Amino acid sequence: FDQPEAVPTNNGALCSPLTGDLILSPNPQGGRAPYTFLWTGPNGFISYDENPLLPNATAQQTGTYSVVVTDANNCVSDAASTVVHISTPPATPSIATVAPICEGETLQLNTTSYNGAVVRYLWSTPNGLIATDNASLIIPLAGVVHAGIYTLRVEVDGCTSLPSAGVVVDITPTPAAPDLPSDFTVCEGEPLVLSTSTVAEAYAWTGPNGFTSDLASPQVTNPATLLDAGTYQLRVANGACWSDFSTVMVTVSPRPLAPTLTTNAPICNGDDLILSTSASAGGGVYEWIGPGG
Predict the structure, then answer these.
(1) How far apart are CA 111 and CA 96, in angstroms?
(2) Residue of 291, 293, 287 whose CA lies nearest to 258
(3) Taking residues 72-94, what's their average pLDDT?
(4) Please, is 44 exposed, middle or buried when counting C-beta atoms within 10 Å of its C-beta (0-12, 13-18, 19+)?
């Protein structure tokens, strides 16, 4: 009779206790079926099953497992072995908490570095899985789409940890640059008032002569002087996140000098009264005011 032969295998490198059950397979060849089996292994392991299953295998069950096959002719194989490798999984990682950031800033998440021949950090993000070779996840120019819950698993030499607790990342939208009126002109001596139609949580105006204001529509000065002319800037905030600046150019027109008047008075009743001035309006208008409105 042909002697049976066993070519035993196992279900690969396991990571205790995450992968689960260890399964041994004898893969008998030759001889005549049916076969019986005798398995032996570490820690006094004995089994007569064809495919023994060791539930929730741990690193203690690493070692060499041997099997002897007996066929229907009562012929016995030589003992054959398979080596089982069960690794202890990496410790469950944790992600350092991160303060809220503004849209457009860099988002960086950090964890403790792990040691091993091959280490990968598997970050579960609101936009899918990202694998890194170091203990940080860096997303430049983060947008609102990157806000959400992040978790992390670490793979060390083929064994993967349990997932970390979730860390919530808050990303505040950056407000748009505020709406300002078109460039405008005021006359010297009139009030100079700035304004915006943008509604925001905070305002920051700057301008000539060290002008600053946190009002939406501040009065710069009253009366305006020629020194108040120039560029005024405004940015607005949503929480701690500030918009880009908007600008408006303000021109202050000089006030004309008081005119010198002449008249043909005194005149007789019924004669024409003639008023005149040598002052030039410079393309402007003249406004006369007298008795009787």
Answers:
(1) 6
(2) 287
(3) 93
(4) exposed
Evaluate whether 55 touches 30 at the Cβ level (below 8 Å).
no
How many Cβ atoms are within 10 Å of 267's Cβ, its own excluded?
Answer: 11
Note the maximum CA span of the chain.
Answer: 158
Angle, CA of 31, 72 and 65, to the nearest 5°: 70
Distance between CA 33 and CA 26 in Å, rounded? 13
- How many angstroms separate the CA atoms of 66 and 69, rounded? 10
Q: What is the DSSP code (8-state) at residue 50?
A: S
- Residues 50, 52, 57, CA angle at the centre, nearest 5°? 165
User: Could you tell me if 84 and 65 are in contact, meaning their C-beta atoms sit under 8 angstroms apart?
Assistant: yes
Mean pLDDT, residues 241-267: 91
- Please choose, from the candidates 79, 65, 168, 74, the residue with its C-alpha nearest in 3D space to the C-alpha of residue 125: 168
Q: The tokens 């009002």 sit on which residue?
A: 215
The neighbour count for residue 272, using CB atoms within 10 Å, is: 6
Say yes or no to pLDDT of 13 above 70: no
The pLDDT tens digits of the residues spanning 38-52 come to: 999 999 999 999 999
Tell me what percent of the chain is helix, strand and coil, each rounded to the nearest 5. 5, 40, 55
Q: Are 245 and 205 in contact (CB under 8 A)?
A: no
